[in-house]
Every structure is written in structure tokens, then in C-alpha cells.
Design a protein that fits this description.
Elements: E1 10-13, E2 20-21, H1 24-30, E3 40-45, E4 51-55
Antiparallel strand pairs: 1-2, 1-3, 3-4
């Protein structure tokens, strides 16, 4: 799992050390040598888990998809951003902290607004 690119769709095989990395920054953090440049790159699709090669000198728009499962792997990278927010559980899992704005309560309906004089003896 890449901490630099949150939505990485493929892993790239480094031509210098023959290991798989999600991005060039992951390679730089784990290796002491620079990433070697090449015209033919090997990719590993994270959706179908199959490897494929692409010649970068003849790269066109149709090459932006995995040849096995048609996963669009050339997308805008989402990098983590520092955010100040209220810490809590994921709202999709536990919505106790959220108020449902769709239901409006009747302000006249209250336990103290009800007349119980006929029941008191």
C-alpha cells in the first residue's frame, strides 16, 4: 500500500533492482540507488493482479487501460493532505456523531407541554 499515492492502480517494476513499487518515492525510500530509467516498463494491475509490459516510446491513449481487465490505471494521483478535523469513527460505519437533518422534530410536542390534569387525582 503506497502512502504517497492513495489511489495507485498499478505497481511498477523497477528496472534497476527488479522489485515492485507503487511509486518512485517508495523506491527512493527503500533503496540507496536512484531509479533507473527505461523505455519499456513492466506494470502489475492491482485489480486483476496480472502483469503486463508497455513500450513508453509508442504510448498512446489506449494504453491507459490494463489489457487483461480494462482497469483505467492512468488517473490523477490523490496524495494525502494534512487536515484539521474532529477525530471519530468513519461516518459510513458509525453515524452516531452525525445529526440527521432530514427529520425535523415538532417543537410543540414535549412531555412538559402535555395536559395530564385529568389523570391526576
Amino acid at each position: 500500500m503506497c502512502k504517497h499515492i492513495l489511489n495507485a492502480q498499478v505497481a511498477i517494476r523497477a528496472p534497476c533492482c527488479k522489485q515492485w513499487y507503487d511509486c518512485a518515492e517508495c523506491h527512493a525510500e527503500s533503496q540507496s540507488h536512484p531509479l533507473a530509467k527505461t523505455t519499456e516498463m513492466a506494470f502489475l494491475c492491482k485489480k486483476c493482479k496480472k502483469a503486463f509490459r508497455k513500450d513508453m516510446t509508442e504510448y498512446d491513449e489506449s494504453d491507459e487501460y490494463c489489457p487483461h481487465c480494462d482497469n483505467h490505471y492512468v488517473i490523477e494521483a490523490k496524495t494525502p493532505q494534512a487536515v484539521l478535523a474532529v477525530e471519530g469513527e468513519d461516518a459510513r460505519v458509525d453515524a452516531r456523531m452525525l445529526k440527521d437533518e432530514r427529520t425535523k422534530q415538532n417543537p410543540t410536542r414535549s412531555l412538559f407541554a402535555m395536559d395530564f390534569t385529568d389523570r391526576i387525582g
